[in-house]
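Quick log. Single chain, no ligands specified.
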Amino acid sequence: MEVASLIVAAAFVLIIALLAVKTVRIVPQARARNVERLGRYRKTLEPGMNVIIPFIDRVKPLIDLREQVVSFLGQPVITEDNLVVRIDTVLFFQVTDPRAADYEIVNYIQAIEQLTATMLRSVIGSMDLEVTLTSRDKINTMLRGVLDDASGKWGIRVTRVEIKAIDPPKSVIDAMEKQMRAEREKRAAILTAEGLRQAQILTAEGDRQGTILRAEGDKQSAILRAEGQSQAIGTVFQAIHENDPDPQLLAYQYVQALPQIAQGAGSSVWMIPNEVTTALKTLSSAFEPASGGSEKSRADGLGQAIRKFPDPGKGAAAVHPEVPGQAPPAELEN
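-> predicted structure:
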């Protein structure tokens, strides 16, 4: 009798424990569970401890309310210019209505994947390859808007869509690389030509400035030389007039200057003017003694004066005195 009592008590405790387990359900944070009573939706259990009627209410699996990430790989898409590209996308979504996500769609992740592929083909099909490669932000915005509208009735909110990779065919990649290489070479050639142009301009400008400065220097140098020569001539002229030289000294200086005149580079014939004879006479009289020297002394003085002239046979021009009343002698070649 006592054994039967113990069995009944143990069974009663077991039933109470089973009822407690079936009655109390604890839902974690950011999760939700739908409850069906007699096969019909009853309510959604919130995070925390919830009480249900055991054996009448059925609790469905947990639904994650956090933002989820799904990656879809290798979606083949045809562009407007009939090129097949493979696009990898990343989708961020969040369940906002557990009841709709559980009862409006069988598998919302698979539904989102198929909807993403469909919308991606629709959006990319209106663009050519170049626009597709350079318009990722635009494609992301368009896909997000379309997917958010389409998945709203499933209790899902699409928060973000990203294009992870766009893979054109290998032939297109090779052509693009050749185009990019040609473009880089073109830019390099343009930059090189521009650099050479700037260098030539700067070189020409430097030559111009140098020429101008050299011309200015030559000008100043010529001016200074002319001023120096002018001052020298003025000084000599003033000294001559202050010292009042006699005709004998002037004739002597005149005779000394004749060899320098004869040694000119362009002189082949040297004509002696009539004044030379007068100068020679004056010079010869300068060597006469005060008491009236002899004819021999005058001749010696004249000979010494004439020896100042260069020898015609040694490369200098021949000396042909001009006789008054006679025609000048014929020009002689060197």
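The chain has four domains: 2-63, 66-168, 190-243, 247-321.
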